[in-house]
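[09:14] KT: can someone run the structure on this one? pasting the chain below
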Amino acid sequence: MEYGICNLTVVPLRADEAHRSEMVSQVIFGETFEILARSINWTKVRTTSDSYIGWIQNGQFLTVDDVGFCAYQLLNKKYIGFEGGFLSYSDHHIQLLHGTFLREGFSYCQENDSQEFTVQVLTLGQEDFVNKVSHIAKQYWGAPYLWGGRSKFGIDCSGFSQLVYQSFGYQLPRDAYQQAEIGNTVDFLTEIQVGDLAFFDNEEGKITHVGVMLDSGTIIHASSCVRIDRMDQEGIFNKELNKYTHKLRIVKRYISE
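[09:31] RB: done, structure tokens below
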């Protein structure tokens, strides 16, 4: 079995082996995936963290075997803070974004050059969730919406909730409907706590949107951009449009005090 390790800032994961194909997600520096198939210019992969399948262009990752992959997984993991940082080697400078993690002692260089990290490390655990989740979520305020995006340069609603939770060592699935299938249901809006996820459905009853609750009546979510809106039992109310834009389906909790 072959595996890949992303060694660029962020790369697209596409539905098919073509640049014009839909970007279904993104793979961030340091993340790993199983290699399923290869073509001349593309590689079909399954991500390790959330089992998402798609195509990555060749040349955008390192390849390791089973032994190398297992050794990589055992190395100490450090998450990068929102200030980000850089990996430098030779004449290359790779920007590292929030959501990135590093494995201490691993060489991400394609050549045998010495590497140097200039980063701010994030040291948060699930015990910090209630006190810090609002701060982490608000760091993305104003980031543009991008279907399949998972970074401050462009992010979708479920990529946003996934990255926020990942900051505290909690791995959510990739899509909103998958995230809604786990966790504990919050029965009443008055019981909502900071960090709970609210899910919204369309006319067919399919969950299509998710946001992070800042309190029982305020939500931060990616819609056109990452924005903060009011929410009640009907859903999200957009003050600028003077209307409800998303119909509330359910609220879930994953990390308790």
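[09:33] KT: thanks! The mean pLDDT is 93.
[09:34] RB: yep, looked fine to me
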